[in-house]
Amino acid sequence: MARQFLEMPNNNGYFGEYGGQIIPPELKTIMDDINDAYEKVSQTEEFQKELNELYTDYVGRPSPIYHARRLSDKLGGARIFLKREDLNHTGAHKINHCLGEALLARHMGKTKVLAETGAGQHGVALATACALLGIDCEIHMGEIDIEKEHPNVTKMKILGCKLVPVSRGTRTLKDAVDSAFEEYLKDPVNFFYAIGSVVGPHPFPKMVRDFQKIVGYEAREQFLAKENALPDVVMACVGGGSNAIGIFTAFLEDEDVRLIGVEPAGKGLDTPDHAATLTLGTKGALHGFECYNLQDKDGTPLPVHSIASGLDYPGVGPQHCYLKDIERVSYQTIDDQECLDAFMTLSRMEGIIPALESAHAVAYAMKLAQTMSPQETILINLSGRGDKDADFVADRLSL
């Protein structure tokens, strides 16, 4: 099993039958140029040294692992640990790949970096990286998400990026992707599209995974040092899937470690208002790659919903699709109310306010822990902090 994970994707960007480059020939040339540059530059000592120094001195890596003792005691089952990506500079795991992508864009001589954002964490992280490296940055964001995630909108403006509100369609993440990609196509030679998750055409699912896998390798070493054993369960929320693949990668070969991805059930799987792509989706093409996605009979992406703006995407990373098919990862769901309950519980039991995205994983861990023994352990990738969500939650719960 080890080799099949190490060798993926193949040269055409496929994880099994998912991924690839479902794009026009002229854009394929650009994507292949990015792949060639990435394979060449990322292996150099200079690139690795600069990125690792930024991870240490700028981001604050390694992020710690924290034993949530009060929460674990309250639940009375497995001990719950948190990989504290919320403590990174900019407040989430997104900075890990944004620095890598911005460094690559600078090396390639690109004049502007473009991206979409949902919850705003990718936007803030990319604007931060571009400010640091002196590259122009343009972020496309749906109008609904702009209203929901106002603190991150303010940060992006302070950091100097151009923020483009997207008013089309559902005015959320999928439409922001469409808008940003259209701008990118105006000048793909000089622009760099820094995709915010393990989605999109090859090589982006591979690149973002590679930049995010530091989370899992740190966590594996830290957990062994702390517990003298690996966790019984490793868990993360899944929208596009970058934080999940980041922590899962280091444990894929450990067959005794259960891996669980948690998708948004939104207002319920029996309603149209969810984003449970791996649970209810079917295979199709979306944004330049093959994946499970939520689509109508004609292959048009359906509107999706999650209380967490970073999870309301109708597709998912191709490696997650493959891991589902071979049953290496189990994908479960949590609805909006369960997410809110977990958000408040972690905040008041541990003094840690999680992002609504991360709270999906916390919610499922709270349910699972009660079915396990106190000798067993769950490690959650707490992918982001909830500063951006605090006002929204306060209004929602009339706090």
Describe the 3D structure:
With 399 residues, this protein is α/β, with parallel strands linked by helices. It folds into 2 domains: 150 residues, Rossmann fold (3-Layer(aba) Sandwich), CATH 3.40.50.1100; 216 residues, Rossmann fold (3-Layer(aba) Sandwich). 44% of the residues lie in helices and 18% in strands. It contains 17 helices and 14 strands. The strands form 4 sheets. A 6-stranded mixed β-sheet has the order 3-4-14-9-10-13, sandwiched between helices. A 4-stranded parallel β-sheet has the order 7-6-5-8, with helices on both faces. A two-stranded antiparallel sheet has the order 1-2. Helix 6 links the parallel strand 5 and strand 6.
How many β-strand stretches? 14
Characterize the overall form.
Answer: globular
Note the main sheet: 6 strands, mixed
Question: Which class do the helix and strand fractions yield?
Answer: alpha/beta
What helical percentage do the residues reach? Answer: 40-55%
CATH architecture of the largest domain: 3-Layer(aba) Sandwich
CATH topology label of the largest domain: Rossmann fold
Cα-based radius of gyration, to the nearest Å? 19 Å
User: What is the total number of structural domains?
Assistant: 2
State the end-to-end CA separation: 50 Å
| Average pLDDT taken over every residue | 95
Q: Give the strand content.
A: 15-25%
CATH class of the largest domain: Alpha Beta
Treating each run of at least 4 consecutive H or I residues as one helix, how many helices?
17
Strand order of the largest sheet: 3-4-14-9-10-13
Question: Poorly predicted ranges (pLDDT <50, ≥5 residues)?
Answer: none
